[in-house]
Amino acid sequence: MGDFNLALVLVAIVVSVLVFIFNIYLLINYQHPDDKNQAYFPKFVVVLGLTVAFLSILMLPADVANRQACKHAIYNGACNLTLPMKDLWLAIYIVDAILVFFVIPFAMFYYEGDQDKTVGKRMKSALCWVITTAIVVALVLGILYGLIGKVDFTIKHLSSETTSFPNNWSSFTSGQQCIGNGVRQVECSAFTSNSSSETTWTQRATFPEYVVALATIVGSVLFSIFGGVGIACLPLGLIFSFIRRPKAVITRSQYIKEATELGKKARELKKAADALHQEERSGSKGRKWRKNTKALEKELLLLEEDVKALEEMYPQGEKAETTWALTVLGYLAKFVLGILGLVVSIAWIAHIVIYLLIDPPLSSFLNEVFIKLDDIWGLLGTAAFAFFCMYLLFAVIAGAMMLGLRLVFITIHPMKWGATLMNSFLFNVGLILLCSISVIQFCSTAFAYYAQATAAQEIFGHTLQSLRGIKYLYKYNVFQIAFIVLAGLTFVYYAAFGWRRKKPSGRFQLSD
């Protein structure tokens, strides 16, 4: 048993190092050329944030494995050699909250500061914004914790008489609730007690748990919106991208015509950008300026998509045929991944309805699947469990990107290979961190049977769902219902409009 615990610690260390290296790889390959050899502090924050986010998702499967480490202990104290998961959970989510509400905003304010100012002035300006935010957040947390930072557990008082053991147990069945007969029949309090035997046991939650709980609520709002949309648009977006793919290479004359139109559009956007930059220098950064800036960002993003589509339809260079073949294979890969993703999305939605929304649950569904996979091979169920949790996080990111293109109040920060600025990186890392808390809470609830008796269950199950003022959101499944409704609406949207080509709207349209 001690060897198994040591192996678990070694695996945790190796996985942490691999995740850190992978995030450095992502940063190097996604960063914009303008950010090379500079902006080191934002880059450090990006790598740290991504590492915390991915490790927090992987910690739930680790928590399950950690539970197994002392499940069959044969000597006292074996469980003391396992990982201190509750302390690790609280530590990683306190770090998560600090990154989301303080460190990432500071890095963004510093990065987006006026480049003409000195480093000291930019740091001072960013620090002022962060200190103001910290004061407001601290006041809100302190007031809420002082007023309603308590946990209300509903308990039932049970009492029963005793009876002597019978000589013959053959007459008893698994469905028999009470022992005794005739006048010696013993009342089973657990089955016949009335509501008057229930009472509420109140205790104050620890401050770290309360911070995690409030961060989870904020993340759950975003999760129910972005996750509900993303669970549908992630696979369907890939499938309909294959359906709308370019069927053949266009002619040179068509390419010149479309490229000329894109050139005109690019010149118009450059004039608009110069005008907005001039307004910024003159100090006219009002509401209208911010609105026009967001509109310009959206137009630039759409223009880049059009340029990419045109390059796909008319590959150039000495290896044009190879480029076209890779494009075709890329769309086929999207189709295959879309089909697999659709299966996973349907499984997720079915599991939420069957296990969470119907009371009592019709089946434990995916919980049983993971348990059976564990029976086949010890880590197979844990790996499948980790995959479903990580898929949910990717769905949140996909939903945020989709809504960001359609809602004017959401700033667009697209992630692009070799062309992602640090402010976009920081924004997306903050979103991932904030939603990762809710993904873990959601997974610990959805897979409560598989993840039972874990530290995550204690924090995100019993404590969080019993916090005063918050517990009703979980009692009535508010987030789960919103998730399912938005997922259904997104499926309908894609079924009705996803297969169509986009109509002209002031942007480039593929030629037929």
Task: Give, in order, the helices and strands.
Answer: HHHHEHEHHHHHHHHHH
Question: Which bin fits the share of residues in helices?
Answer: 55-70%
Q: Note poorly predicted spans.
A: 74-78, 182-187, 503-512
Beta-strand level of the residues, as a percent range? Answer: under 5%
| Content-based structural category | mainly alpha
Number of strands: 2
| Biggest sheet overview | 2 strands, antiparallel
Count helical runs: 15
The averaged pLDDT comes out at 76
Categorize the overall geometry.
globular
Distance between the amino and carboxyl termini: 66 Å
* Oligomeric state of the chains in view: single chain
As a whole number of angstroms, the C-alpha radius of gyration is: 28 Å
Sheet with the most strands: spatial strand order: 1-2
Describe it.
- By secondary structure, this protein is mainly α.
- Helix content is 68%, strand content 3%.
- The protein is built from 15 helices and two strands.
- It has helices spanning 2-30, 40-69, 85-111, 119-148, 189-192, 207-243, 252-281, 287-313, 320-357, 366-376, 380-404, 422-446, 455-463, 471-475, 478-498; strands at 150-156, 198-204.
- It has a two-stranded antiparallel ribbon with strand order 1-2.
- Helix 2 (40-69) runs antiparallel to helix 11 (380-404) and helix 7 (252-281) runs antiparallel to helix 8.
- It is globular.
- Mean pLDDT is 76; it is low at 74-78, 182-187 and 503-512.
Which features would summarize this protein structure in a list?
15 helices; mainly alpha; two-stranded antiparallel sheet; 3% strand; 68% helix
Outline of the structure:
With 512 residues, the chain is mainly α.
